[in-house]
Write a structure and sequence with these properties.
By secondary structure, the protein is an all-alpha fold. The chain has one domain (3-179). The chain is built from 11 helices and no strands.
Length: 180
């Protein structure tokens, strides 16, 4: 199961509903908006976890970030501290505000919802992505993730084509960047 599947599964209906209310969208449009942002976030995570230190940083962020609270209390997604948390996450994933703006612009064109709305949604969706990763890797029980305990879970979550490897996904991402 990849990140997008986790976010849009029936288990997360409360989070999807919160996003819809928060941004004044019907739930199907909220799912579409989330679906347009998640691939870029996933590719950013793939890029950041190419090296061991990036994997270690992600695991540490999951251990200390308490992102799973968004599952337990979806109304937290509407809070200002969630946006701040999401912007911090975006800084780690993308490295610059310009990349975040480009992601929002692309998603706005893709969905027809506009880049301004997508720019507001992006940090909240980033928080949701970390919540999903945390829930899967920490088991929802407040445990601690380690490289050993995560096994292949991180790979499977970040593997966009489902072949068991993120290497080809990262190489595909690099190829796309090279031809732009």
């Amino acid at each position: 199961m990849n990140i997008m599947d986790m976010l849009t599964s029936g288990d997360n209906a409360a989070m999807i509903g919160q996003i819809a209310r928060q941004f004044g969208l019907p739930e199907d449009q909220a799912k579409e908006a989330i679906g347009s942002l998640v691939p870029s976030l996933t590719r950013g995570l793939q890029h950041r976890t190419q090296e061991d230190i990036g994997v270690d940083d992600l695991i540490e962020a999951l251990n200390v970030g308490k992102h799973d609270r968004y599952f337990d209390e979806p109304e937290r997604l509407g809070r200002e501290d969630t946006v701040k948390d999401g912007n911090d996450i975006l800084g780690h994933i993308f490295g610059s505000k310009e990349v975040s703006r480009n992601v929002a612009r692309h998603a706005g064109k893709q969905t027809g919802l506009g880049s301004s709305l997508m720019k507001k949604m992006l940090p909240v969706v980033a928080s949701m992505v970390m919540a999903s990763l945390g829930k899967k890797m920490l088991g929802g029980g407040g445990g601690r993730a380690t490289r050993a305990s995560s096994g292949g879970l991180l790979t499977s979550l970040l593997d966009s084509d489902g072949d068991g490897s993120i290497i080809d996904d990262v190489l595909g991402m690099a190829f796309k960047a090279a031809i732009r």
